[in-house]
Queue: 3 jobs
Job 1
Amino acid sequence: PFDVLVIGGGPSGASAAVYAARKGIRTGIVAERFGGQIMDTVGIENFISVKYTEGPKLAASLEEHVKEYDIDVMNLQRAKRLEKKDLIEVELESGAVLKSKAVILSTGARWRNVGVPGEAEFKNKGVAYCPHCDGPLFEGKDVAVIGGGNSGIEAAIDLAGIVKHVTVIEFAPELKADSVLQERLNSLPNVTVIKNAQTKEITGTDKVNGITYIDRATEEEHHVELQGVFVQIGLVPSTEWLGDTVERTRIGEIVVDKRGATSLPGVFAAGDCTDSAYKQIIISMGSGATAALGAFDYLIRN
Ligand code: FAD
């Protein structure tokens, strides 16, 4: 059996595996797609100490670092079930069952898509999901934020300080964000809020040049010219396969303590699949290190 088995090969999983292996314990890592979300990222400018890199390049560095150690890498394998017996068992889609004394869950998350024409075509060509990451790329330009919940309104406030103008598009007749956020938003001169509006299409040629929405009250169609669209309708953690084995929040994030421990002894979690307040590469790597050290502490006590 493994001492530590990491499920997920993004930044948090790679970090956890390296930290575990450096303790000289038997470490494995299972990943559906090694690299995780960064495989879909173009420019990365906030991975501190590296001024600029690109997602696939960072993923290759993660893999190279992992391969420096005696880590059993099982790529293109998806975990489908976890169960605690004497050891913790993880069953893969392939039918294989892996056993480990401790497990670190680092299965990450995915942004919820609006699913309108243009979204997929213009991803990284004006369609963005992370204001902390891509906001500065739109300096002086006009952008839209789709979604009027807390993350949408936080994004709009953040972007208003960087870009020329922000149009917020909310499907419901009212914004769902906390009232303090709405008040702050209303105090900004360069923000327009459009409620009761259904996004129909993100338009463009080689990159985004506008957004079309339908006013749900009048059924009239409108078009706004702009250069960027931030989709902020939720980040979905990839944790459905865990069921009730570990405690999860209402939106499915794994609840962890300050050592990365979940509600099930011996099972730890890190990165975007957890209830961490912010989701970023540098944060997920830090939490991967925390979970590995937490798992090591657990192993020497059990
Ligand atoms: P992920 O990167 O989501 O990795 C999850 C891993 O788990 C993957 O290997 C996946 O295949 C695997 N997995 C999932 N389910 C299973 C399963 N059942 N069995 C086995 N494996 C499984 N952050 C920044 O700091 N700077 C940026 O500039 C930046 N830009 C971004 C741009 C885009 C387009 C996106 C989508 C995200 C961006 N982020 C950025 C956020 C950053 O990518 C994430 O915070 C980070 O990747 C989280 O790492 P993670 O390891 O927790 O999860």
Job 2
Amino acid sequence: WFGHVEPAAKDPILGVTEAFLADPSPDKVNVGVGAYRDDNGRPVVLECVREAERRVAGNANMEYLPMGGSVKMIEESLKLSYGEDSEFIRDKRIAAVQALSGTGACRLFADFQKRFLPDSQIYIPTPTWANHHNIWRDARVPQRTFSYYHPESRGLDFAGLMDDVKNAPDGSFFLLHACAHNPTGVDPSEEQWREISFQFKAKKHFPFFDMAYQGFASGDPERDAKAIRIFLEDGHQIGCAQSYAKNMGLYGQRAGCLSILCDDEMQAVAVKSQLQQIARPMYSNPPLHGALIVSTILSDPELKNLWLKEVKGMADRIIGMRKALKENLERLGSPLSWEHITNQIGMFCYSGMTPEQVDRLTSEFHIYMTRNGRISMAGVTTGNVAYLANAIHEVTKP
Ligand code: LMR
């Protein structure tokens, strides 16, 4: 039956973790997957999560959630993305369902897009998170790309981006990273977001925000929702994928939310019912435990404050490691500019290293990262930063 099945290509991100785990070297370093580590390189369970687990342990049952997921978790998620006092929440204009983290939210949206706008395409930034391509491919939505990153400046290609937005057919779908762009660590400034929003309005484009790193750009989830708030102020209808993998450290719980801002409450009810109908044959209803943790934390002012402190702590440790990596490279006498390590934000540094240089890091130094040169700064620690800098210096020497 299955003799014709060839092995699939390794995943460019999760395949790195597999290779790292298989390496017996005591020196090995994993700066591949975007998953936060403490300064000892260990995974972190946030204190607010531990406390929420204590609180839900006694009274939770194991019943199914509704097809659309936990109502309380969705309510809290919308406050985080649209704003505590959002008129859109008040007017019940948002169709929202709990999703299997950010990936699941994007996939639900892509399937919805295919089902109800079968002739539409999606514009995806170059570069983007590799899985975005898989998601819209499997939903059979044709993909186009738009300019985003400027390799020479290692910053935003704003002119290219604006040209591509202008040249796309009116009414196109665009995938935007709400903050802490993955993999580049490069975000538009507030002023640039305003210009992008203005141009989207003129072209009647639909912005779909993937917000996987809310809190990791500035250390403050509220500030990191700025791009979305600008688009909302400008009167756009938007879509939004939220994930609690990174900002609550709930990676394996698959806790997230998909929301679509509609014209009115009636439309929102219809859209939500269709999203549920897409979810039902795929997974019936989303997982319970992560949703309980999220809603417990966000609905309790004390736990929410603790969470905000802990998110800031994670973001600050990463900023510290950016400085340390740059200083180490400069101390080693690298003639190259490493300014971008500290200019870029969020969890990643888009180093500019070539796939061949990355291969050398892995084969000679047991350092594991994606071949596009992305370093997950969350995997850098006081203990490995000098080793990492030295290896980078060795493979990038002119
Ligand atoms: C990453 O980009 O490393 C993370 O989003 C993990 C993943 O699923 O790819």
Job 3
Amino acid sequence: RKLGYAIVGLGSYATKQIMPRFKECTSSQLVALVSGTPEKLTRYAAEYGVPAANCYSYKDFDRIRDNPAIDIVYIVLPNSMHAEYSIRAARAGKHVMCEKPMAVSVAECEAMIAASRKANRKLMIGYRSRFEPYNREAIALARGGHVGPTKIINAEHGFTAKPDQWRLDRAMSGGGSLMDIGIYSLNAARYLTGEEPMTVTAVESTDKSDPRFKTVEDRIDFMLKFPSGIIANCVSSYNSNHNRYRIVGPNGYIDAEPATAYEGQRMTIRKGDATMPRVLPAGQKSQFAGQLDHLSECVLADRQPIVAGEEGLADMRVIEAIYRSAREGRTVRMDRA
Ligand code: NAD
């Protein structure tokens, strides 16, 4: 059976990346749309064959409760709206897929998890890289000690932010590059190690005369120290383009670049004296369809998603520690954060 998804927020990511991928899905289908713009509802309903009865505005969103065709609600709204709509969806008896960052604070993440538990519904975060073949390979190689036990991870993520958008308004975004793109460096450091950091040390560099960065940070560099001794050095930037990580061990390194882009992943492995590209078979399900189907399959089999709400909460705990470290100019211990 294909479970029915309602997409909430018909912006760039939803319409250009997510909605076109349902045709690849084996366990998921697009059945409903939620938007504040009637023209968008009409246009996308026609394009995807969604009946008018399954189109909702934000005002009548809670009526999804009465629509048995909707199994899962996918929140693709600005960050500050994730918690409210995830909680309302759970209260309406629906499973929830929520985009990253899960919310704008640890407290909101905890409230989302509590609401889903209370409703006995699943909650998953849109960490698509976990369904992307090169990232899965990198996890297996790093944790399997392919270049020896991992010692260092370097992860860099950034892009040049365009002015005048909600991402640059702290009230909507909850923060700057770290909330949006640096979270890929953080999440990769956590999934490549399979560990939670013990300490966090961060430095922020933001040109406050740049009108884009009036309320949010541009650049924030952070170092995570993990229990096994692995150190991750991470970059998060809104003013330079990076998308890569390197896993370094005593016998070589594994490079991924682009590492977490929408497509075109490449991997190179240096082992001993040899440097070789790692090429995986083409034609696998895209990370987007993999992510959508994973939640459907978890609902059908009553399994916990590999990137459940707890995973978003774990990132948010570290994000709050990164901001605290930068603000206070000191290393923050996670057990005291
Ligand atoms: P966007 O601005 O293109 O879309 C946001 C949508 O929310 C728009 O349709 C907008 O109309 C709607 N909206 C509803 N109420 C709003 C309000 N009060 N103010 C502003 N917009 C409002 O943004 P996007 O790039 O699609 O990002 C949406 C979410 O998806 C964010 O949480 C972002 O972090 C996430 N995202 C994830 C990925 C990924 O690769 N996983 C990529 C891009 C975005």
